[in-house]
Amino acid sequence: MTGPTYTARTRPQTQQTLTTLLPLLDAHKLGSDDWTNLERLAYAALDMGRVDVADKCLTRLLAGFPSSPRVAALRGAILEASAPDAALKFYADVLELDSGDATIWKRQIGLLRRLGRVERAVTELCTYLDTFYSDAEAWLELADLYASCGHRYTQSLHALSHAQLLAPQNPFFTLQSAETAYTAGDLPLALRLFLAVVDMSDGDDADRERDAPPMGVTVRAWFGVKLCARRLKVEVDVGKGRGRESASGTESPKHAAVLEELAGERLRVAYSSAGRAGEIAQGRGEVFAWVAASD
């Protein structure tokens, strides 16, 4: 069996999948597509709490593909629903035989996190990334684990830096780094990263007019610029010299007030736009009031 592509589904869609594919359990002979659908049925059954149906699917899949890594992953998923500690032991046994099974490793890490064993999840994920360094999503998961595990934001930022190295043109990774730096209190670094997001998502696009309203991730980045610049400006105004020290060694901007004014102007443009861009304009009154109060 080769790996399928799964799509996130709502509960009604999952119920429909369960109802549609349930007759496969009574089929005497299964074609190539039917085996994949049987696997889909098993996961849909788990989503709907029908472990009995998932068990029946597993029995047939084991008979047809006793050594399949995907069937092993399904077996682990079924164990997770009823005996999570047994699932962890099963995953450990599989990984002892094949440490390159990324699916099993990820299921183990996800289960550890759901069980609240965050420190062990961090350890396992770090070990996983020693083998699968290019898994950007795993670096994001590690960053999130660090952030939720005793507020270890410095380590979270370090993990995010690896994701950025793997996908340097992805503005969402940079945005997450910016927001983490802001939460950690490293305002100069956060400001630099928010501006980088603006540059990536609203930069030298030949098809984009210079005064076109910001959209999507760019709007969120401008909010970040506004917040950082305002706080840095206040710190300078109250006599703290050039502003706060940056844990990352990032230099504070010399013209925070100008950046704050620019961010306010771009947010006004974003929330004043009409047509398709105007979809973002819900709550414009609150935004205008917030921008005006901070000017």
From TrEMBL:
Q: Which InterPro entries does this one have? A: EMC2-like, TPR-like_helical_dom_sf, TPR_EMC2
Extract the SUPFAM superfamilies matched here.
TPR-like
What role does this protein play? Part of the endoplasmic reticulum membrane protein complex (EMC) that enables the energy-independent insertion into endoplasmic reticulum membranes of newly synthesized membrane proteins.
Query: Pfam families given for it?
Result: TPR_EMC2 (PF22890)
Superkingdom of source: Eukaryota
Query: Is this entry keyworded NAD?
Result: no
Q: What kind of membrane protein is this, topologically?
A: Peripheral membrane protein
Q: Keyword Nucleus on this protein?
A: no
Q: Please report the name of this protein according to its UniProt entry.
A: ER membrane protein complex subunit 2
Q: Where is the EMC2 TPR-like domain?
A: 85-181
Q: Where in the cell is it found?
A: Endoplasmic reticulum membrane
Q: How does it assemble?
A: Component of the ER membrane protein complex (EMC).
Signal sequence, start to end: none
Look up the record and report any one GO term of the cellular component aspect: EMC complex
Origin species, per record, is Athelia psychrophila
User: Keywords for this entry?
Assistant: Endoplasmic reticulum, Membrane, Repeat, TPR repeat
Q: Which family does it belong to?
A: Belongs to the EMC2 family.
